[in-house]
Amino acid sequence: MKYIKDIDVSNKTIILRCDLNVTIKDNKIVDDTKIIKSLDTINYLLENNCKIIIMSHLGKVKSLEDKEKNTLYPVYKRLKELINTNIYFSKCTKGIELENLVKNLKNKEIILMENTRYEDYPEKLESSCDLELSKYWASLGDIFINDAFGSSHRKHASTYGIKKYIPSAYGLLINYELEKLNELINNKEKPFVVIMGGAKVDDKIKLIKELIKKCNYLIVGGGIANTFLYANGYNVGKSLITKESLDEVKDIIKNYKDKIIMPIDFVVENNQVINNRNLNEIKDDDIIYDIGKLSIEKYEEIINKSKTIFINGTVGLYEDERFKNGTYSILKILSNSKTKVFVGGGDAVSATNKLGFSDSFYYKSTGGGATLEYIIDGSLQALED
Question: Could you tell me the CA-to-CA distances from 205 to 47, 78, 238 in Å, in that order?
């Protein structure tokens, strides 16, 4: 797939697929990072006198209720604050209203189309890459630009199908993301340390298997650490574990025992009482929600010896004030270290923003699954020719 700067986009009608899948609560955007990151390509197209039709998904749409709560209208309002041009909102994803907006669009004006996944109810036309839907959306413009890095691991109508029918290229954000991830994959300085957190091992088992071959140490936290500890024979009480992946985790521990660094103390809750427990003191009714002070000190020692770090996920339930200290402390240690830190995955990026480290690291990916898929496979489905 070509790069946007290698094709002529001047005065063209551009279908621009962005990843504007932001968290919205009470009709307010919680974190607008993905919107901000999309502005470079939008502004580049405006500078080239383009008409722009922006498409994005938001959440999953499996019911009428999902349609009501997953509207892109709050994103439309935020774009109007950020971009000094006429921006229009199409309440529909196909039909005469959208077509009239496109017909009347002037150069340097923008349409934000409603959530592409509205086409997933009642039939999964978007996510199944429906042929007719892809053709229809392609008919609205002259050129398709994919800048939705976070969705480029999926062959959906709006990320993959459209480009079969009109000239296509990828945008500035995708180019930036690929450059940084290629640096992580191919040119990282060692010692190379991976910090892997999050809830479930099965979501990241492929990534763990790929990275543990390349890293010097794998530090685990969150629900992932619980599963590793359980697989290694420790009691984790009623804590979240992923039993479906236990055999694979046991094999990883067996083959890479010297690389894997697990927590040794925890913040637990037992009948709404918060306690600190060492590894051998976990009780049957305890639920682990964060790592403890000794684990933080253990991880700090390894972090300060490293040259490159990739962090994916968080080491505790940082959204809850009672259990944010582990994640906050690790991010603070990373921000004070001299190592080159790559932050990948939605939870890790959200934590850096929420806890005050939004500008502290070398690279923060806007992708979750896309980041992981690219590290594992070195390619993304939507960018394939």
Answer: 43, 37, 22
Measuring CA to CA, how many Å separate 258 from each of 96, 206, 211, 283, 284? 63, 20, 14, 27, 28
* Number of H-type helices and E-type strands within the chain: 13, 18
| Residues 208-233: tens digit of each pLDDT | 999 999 999 999 999 999 999 999 99
As a whole number, mean pLDDT of residues 232-237 equals 97
Q: What angle do CA 12, 99, 150 make, to 5 degrees?
A: 65
Q: What is the pLDDT of residues 12-37, one digit of tens each?
A: 999 999 999 998 988 899 889 899 99
- Cβ pair 347, 367 in contact under 8 A: no
Cα–Cα separations (whole angstroms), residue 118 to 113, 128, 161, 309? 11, 13, 16, 38
Greatest pairwise CA separation for the chain in angstroms = 69
pLDDT the model gives residue 200: 87
pLDDT 10s digits, 51-92: 999 999 999 999 999 999 999 999 999 999 999 999 999 999
Global pTM?
A: 0.90
Q: Quote the tokens at residue 16.
A: 């621009």
pLDDT higher than 80, residue 345: no
Give the whole-angstrom CA distance, residue 111 versus residue 264: 53
CB atoms under 10 Å from CB of 111, counted, come to 24
Per the CB < 8 A criterion, the answer to whether 79 and 166 are in contact is no
Using the CB atoms, write b or e for 158-191: b if 16+ within 10 Å.
Answer: bbbbbbeebebbbbbbbbbbbebbeebeeebeeb
For the chain, the domains span 2-173, 181-376
Q: Which fold has domain 2-173?
A: Rossmann fold (3.40.50)
Query: CA 314, CA 164: separation in Å to the nearest integer?
Result: 38
Q: Does domain 181-376 correspond to CATH entry 3.40.50.1260?
A: yes
By three-state DSSP, how is residue 200 classified? coil
Rounded CA-CA distance 358/360 in Å is: 6
Radius of gyration (Cα) for the chain, nearest Å?
22
- 192 HSE (CA, 13 A, CB side): 15
2-173 and 181-376 share one CATH topology? yes
pLDDT of 346 reads: 66
